[in-house]
Design a protein that fits this description.
7 strands; binds zinc ion; 112 residues; 3-stranded antiparallel β-sheet; 2 helices; 4-stranded antiparallel β-sheet; alpha+beta
C-alpha cells in the first residue's frame, strides 16, 4: 500500500508529501494542511442554470440566485467534479475536511 489514503470518492491524501490529490488522475491539489477546495477550479453556478424551468408555470424549483449559489469544485488536472457546495453569495467556502495529518502519518509509518 502506498502513501495515499482515499478520503472521499474523489479525494486522496498523500501522507508522505502531505498533499491533497485527485483520486482519478493523481494530480496534487494543495497542501494537506489547507482546505482542499482552495486547490480546485471553482465554477460559481446560478441555480437557474441547474434546475429546468417548469413550462408555463409562474414558479420553478430553482433557489433564488440572490440567496444561493452553487459552487462546484473541479480537479484542475482531469476536470472531475470533486464537491458541490450551496452557499449564499459572497459567503466564504467551508472547510469541511480537516485531517489530523500527524496522527495519520504516525499510523502510516507504523504499518511500514
Ligand atoms: Zn483529477
Amino acid at each position: 500500500m502506498g502513501a495515499k489514503r482515499q478520503i472521499t470518492e474523489y479525494l486522496d491524501i498523500d501522507l508522505e508529501k502531505e498533499m491533497w490529490c485527485c483520486n482519478r488522475c493523481g494530480r496534487e491539489l494543495i497542501s494537506g494542511r489547507q482546505n482542499y477546495k482552495e486547490g480546485c477550479l471553482v465554477y460559481d453556478r446560478d441555480p437557474r442554470d441547474l434546475y429546468e424551468p417548469i413550462p408555463e408555470a409562474p414558479f420553478g424549483f430553482a433557489p433564488d440566485p440572490e440567496w444561493i449559489r452553487y459552487l462546484e469544485f473541479y480537479c484542475p488536472g482531469c476536470g472531475v467534479l470533486i464537491e458541490v457546495e450551496p452557499l449564499p453569495p459572497g459567503h466564504p467556502i467551508s472547510h469541511d475536511i480537516e485531517l489530523d495529518l500527524d496522527i495519520l502519518k504516525r499510523k502510516y509509518k507504523e504499518q511500514r
